[in-house]
Request: fold
Amino acid sequence: MKINVSIVCLAITLLTTGLMTGCGDSDDDSSSGSAPSVSIFAGQINTPGSAGGSVNGAQFDAPMGLAADQSGNIYVADENAETISKISNGSVSILAGTPYQQGSSDGAGSAARFESPQELAIDPSGNLYMTDDVPNSDAEIVRKITPAGQVSTIINPATGQALQTNGSTAIAADAQSNVYIFTTNETTGAVQLTQITPAGAVNPVALTSISAAPVLLINPQALAVDASNNLYISDNDINAEAGALYKVSLNGSAGQATLLAGSVVSSGSSDGTGSLATFNGLDDLAIDSGGNVYAEDYYNGTIREITPGGVVTTFAGVAGQPGLFLGQLPLPLPLLDGLAIVGSTLYMSATINSVVLQIAPL
Reply:
């Protein structure tokens, strides 16, 4: 979900540090059987900037999307700094882009330019894919970044121009290195799930229910893929409220979609099973090794956990009580964007607070 940082920054963010654990090390926190705790993984609270170095001294300026590779490295789309950063072994470095140098140029490392990096996905080979703003447009283009930092723009074979989304920033990659975004069906004007193959083909994915009836998305916000190559979609009502989580079994250019939890007609913060659970702005998703989905419930200010059976519980945050607090849950959470999971740690980008947070153990 795109954030107008200039408006959101007017909100009062509460901060307490009395129960803060060590920064930047997800292995020395309270993961030995105690309650999950919130701590700072990287960056300096409410100190926007763009600086590498140790996780404690690094700076971000509106961190948005997150992604984790198979080695546990974390990647950060730094929206205002127009860079992509890599966090590895306790250090932050800029993989691509030059701080505060805006543009859409492809190139290697610091020679590349981004307009406004949004969400990230990563394939099994370590290639990053990202959505990036298009100037004077609501659309996003799709960029690819190799592990060496070489940036290229994905081209739509039908037009010979940069492939654009329908305005959604959502992006995901599966085990076969297919990338998924949302585009607009040129015939109907409806939201279209679209697959980009490693060879560059762009294929619409038809979503149907178990009865073969078409499944129409209203206002999808995020995508994620689990270890079994199932695709998950968070969809909201036309006002980006309420929230339904779909699980999609993929078969080439077709996908069988099952409603796992929530609905697009009822907003709320109720836990429960399936459609008895309610959300208020279901957004970014991350999936653990057991197939549990952790979802940002944007307007409630919470992280909801959805089991493979569709049982929804509030994992972190207090509905309607935003704030940045460090220590053992339950605690309020600040405004969040990207989510990523490595092992038993959930990473979250706290956009207006300029930090990447972690919660462990899951």
